[in-house]
C-alpha cells in the first residue's frame, strides 16, 4: 500500500514535496512556532489542509531550499505562482514517500 502522508504524535502531518524534494510538515493539533494551526480532513491518503502552506527558504547543504507555497486539496498539491521551484503554477498529486 502506498504511503502519502504520516502523522506524528503531536499532530504534525508530513508529506513529500516533489517541488522541494523534501518533507513538509503541517501542524494540525498544536500550534507551530509562529502560532499557526491548520484544518485537516483527517485523510492520510487524500488530505486537504486549510489555509495554504507556505515554506520559507532555509540554508541547506551549502545553498537554500526554494520558497514553496501551495494549497493541498483531496491529495493534490496546487503550487502557487510565488514558488521558486520547477513546479510553480502546477497541480500534482502528493507522491508516495521516497524509499
How would you describe what is shown here?
- This protein has 99 residues and is mainly β.
- The protein is 0% helix and 41% strand.
- The chain has no helices and 10 strands.
- A 5-stranded antiparallel beta sheet has the order 4-5-8-9-10, with no helix packed on it. A 3-stranded antiparallel beta sheet has the order 1-2-3, with no helix packed on it.
Question: Could you list some keywords that capture this structure?
Answer:
five-stranded antiparallel beta sheet, mainly beta, 99 residues
Quick overview of this protein structure:
It is built from no helices and ten strands. With 99 residues, it is mainly beta.
Trace the largest sheet across and list its strands. Answer: 4-5-8-9-10
What structural class is derived from the secondary structure elements? mainly beta
Mean pLDDT: 88
- Helix and strand string, N-terminal first? EEEEEEEEEE
Shape: globular
- How many helices? The count is 0
Helix content: under 10%
CA radius of gyration is: 13 Å
How many extended strands?
Answer: 10
How much beta, percentage-wise?
A: 35-45%
**Alpha-carbon distance between the termini?**
13 Å
Largest sheet: 5 strands, antiparallel
Quaternary organization: single chain
Q: Which spans of ≥5 residues are poorly predicted at pLDDT below 50?
A: none
